[in-house]
Amino acid sequence: LKKREDWKNKIDDYVDSVNAMVGFANFYRYDDDSGQMQDDVVVLQGWPFTVGSGNETKKVTPDLAIAMGDREPVVAEVKKSFPNDRELWMKDFAQLMKYDAALDGWPLGPSMRHDHDIVLLTHQSRCVAVTDFYKEKLEANEIAFSRPFAIVEFNRSNEGQSFFFFRRHVGNVSDADLDDRLHEGVPVPMQALVREYSMVKLWDSEPPLPYFLQMIWQDVITEKAAEKRPLATLQKRQKIEIEISVDQLVTELRDRFSFKALSPPGLTGHPEIPKRSWVLRACEALVIAEFAQWTDSSEKKILTVRFQKFDDLLDVFIEKCSELSGSDAAQLALFPNEGMSDD
Amino acid sequence: MTELSFFAQFRERVLQTGGFVREIDALLGASPDAQVRAVPFYSASVRAWWSQAVTIGNRRISPLATGENVGLYEIEVNYSQRGEPKRRTGDLLLYHPPEYPEVSVAVTLEDSDFFRRAVGPIIFNSYPKIMTTFISHKRLRRVLDRFADSRGVSKIVIKRASVRVRYGNGPDGRHIVPIVSWPDMTLEEAFDWVHGQNGWFQSLSFDIPTMGSTTSISFSRQGEVRTTGVFPAVFSHFVEPVCKMLHDNVNFFQKRSRRETPGGMARPLMIRVEDNQFEDVAENERFIGAVRKLPKSSVSVLHGNPYIHISVLDYYDGSSFDVWVVSNNRIVVVPQFRGSLQAIKRLVNHIFDTYAEGQIEDYTEAAG
């Protein structure tokens, strides 16, 4: 039971992180005056930038980058939870300080005239402690930013309707109006963003396995199965085999559920989200759970799925992953980094 | 004139003129025991599908003749009664209203037994190829009121009603309890009673006086109408509005799958329910319980409290949806890459049937 609860909490955290990013990006996308999304605002997730020059270049991939034609762009890192050991927090600030440099690779190219802001988005429950940590380290000259930097808390709240609430704890963002609003705290009604929440489900962090499997089974595998035969007449325990490649799963999921959905249609160069390695691990889980087998067991490029109908897909995969996470072999193959983030 | 030649002439005239409404009315006038049933439905493919003989289960549909807007078919049904094999045949007319190209009306003069065994199952069990409509409680009342006004009938008295009551408030949602009654109530009393019971009319029957006799009419939530007379009036006050309803539904619900929208942009829709419907968090469980009862689907709950986020997969055609309740009076349905109009309609109907009826609107970002 505890394992099931753990999975549910991880799914909740993952979804909250995506929704927080979508909500924060909306401060820049949405024009209050016109009531419309602004065409010249491009939201990028996991977008690779280059810092440095000559032989000293490095790739950095902030969680969120918001490019705007005539305003200061923003890069943000979202970190819903921090470990108990405060010393480990320095690693996250070191990551943020890597963004405190000229970033090469903005998709709007020369039209980007301004330098960028840097924002840490973190959950309300940790925000005070993280802000205190930041101030201490700033005082000790262990943390320094030359560009505008702010720590912004987020949390869900419910007062008649559900909100994501954002409030700036320390620092500033360049947009003075937004800065003022964030100082007071801004409730963003979820009602305003359910379209986006439904389109963007994956970010540059491996999703909890049951959630990812549900997405794969529901939105890609079922569609392939439905093309093969009508599913309404398929009996509960009856199975049909369908073949699907790992590459096709990657492409379909990227097109459907990554931040690409919030980008202009012509924009190319999106990062591979979901990563192929995540999809491969999900396929491996289906094989271990005996829902599928590799068509080409040596190369592991094509999967034969034994499709069947379930009444509650997420519950089935939470149950299965709870069973699997108790097995040593599955643990090695499927759960190498329970912390999920690749960065 | 033999019955055979009578119907042969009827067919001929209908095919030539397409004017089957008056022809049927004449038939009803000439035969006191006759009745006609009409069921408008949506189908993008029925003309092509039935252009040759087709078998659906133990029923066979054979085209007899087609005109510009009408087609005549013979239906054969084989069944067993008390262990004995039985076979019946009957006629079915399909009318295709020119103004609503995706809508057809199944019309039959056959008796109730034939309708129940042959025509009804073909129309109601051929989802998603054939989809009937769904008439909300309020709209049903409006249709009946307008009909009564048009006939100068001050009071319609309900003779027989089939009612469904959303019963119970447990965590597994509400049960639907069927009730059949012979209330002898006026329309107003009957609708108030059903509303008070948190239910809806599956069908209702009533009589109206016509030319010194009585015409019996029944009308169902799926838009099926049966009458023993005044067919032109019944057609214009029941059949035509339902055809328009189907047409409007098709326009509203179609092209909402992300595959069909520019840039894969989602096209959500909203069901506006009563203010403060979801004020009590216990209502969340009732709603989730009701959605979980959607047949032939997977329903996964991603979040249940304080807001609701459900992922629904329709096994009829693989359509999938995100369903959200993030304010007190709105349910938002977001079709994913596959979100057929039939699947959206089925989900919305299910919510109306098992949870509560509401006003369907295009999604707007504004909360409240």
Question: What is the gist of this entry?
Answer:
The complex is a heterodimer of chains A (about 350) and B (about 375). Chain A has about 350 residues and is α+β, with helices and mostly antiparallel strands. Chain A has helices at about 1-30, 90-100, 125-140, 175-185, 195-200, 210-230, 245-255, 275-290, 315-325, 330-335; strands at about 30, 35, 40-45, 50, 60, 65-70, 75-80, 115-125, 150-160, 160-170, 185-190, 240-245, 290-295, 300-305.
Task: Give a written overview of the molecule.
The complex is a heterodimer of chains A (343) and B (368). Chain A is of the alpha+beta class. The C terminus of chain A is likely disordered. Chain A is globular. In chain A, 39% of the residues lie in helices and 22% in strands. The two termini of chain A are 30 Å apart. The radius of gyration of chain B is 22 Å and the shape is globular. Chain B is α+β, with helices and mostly antiparallel strands and 368 residues long. In chain B, helix 5 runs antiparallel to helix 7.
